[in-house]
Automatic annotation (TrEMBL):
Its main location: membrane. The chain crosses the membrane at residues 44-75. Pfam families: Bestrophin_2. Belongs to the anion channel-forming bestrophin (TC 1.A.46) family. The keyword Cell membrane applies. It is found in: Cell membrane. This is Putative membrane chloride channel (Bestrophin family). Keywords: Cell membrane, Ion transport, Membrane, Transmembrane, Transmembrane helix, Transport. It is a multi-pass membrane protein. It comes from Silvibacterium bohemicum. One of its GO terms (molecular function) is chloride channel activity.
Amino acid sequence: MIGEQIYKLLEERLTAFTAVQVACERIGSTPTPFTYTLLIHRTAYAYCFLLPFGLVSTMGWATPLFTVLVAYAFFGLDALGDELEDPFGDHPNALPLLSLARTIEINLLEAIEAQEVPEFLRPVDSLLT
């Protein structure tokens, strides 16, 4: 039988876990508005197109090099935002939820000193699922 204090602690942990799960489901099911994505793309293109005109008087011949570096950073951040938009998917950069769940399962089974403990998941083709 579970004591009253342990039951209360267990209920608090379960409530916190449920709140985290709801937050993750909200993140996973909320799409990024198309207008936001469009605005980010157009702003990056406009900034990178107009940047050389603002720098040419101070940077001289180094203007193209600096503009390319800034454009690389802007479009890299834009691509990073696209990848992070769906953290729970099946693509290579998604969170390895199965591996995380297996690790938690192993830790819990070791804590209760279970006889059979599953193996950790190994990467397949350098990807951890």
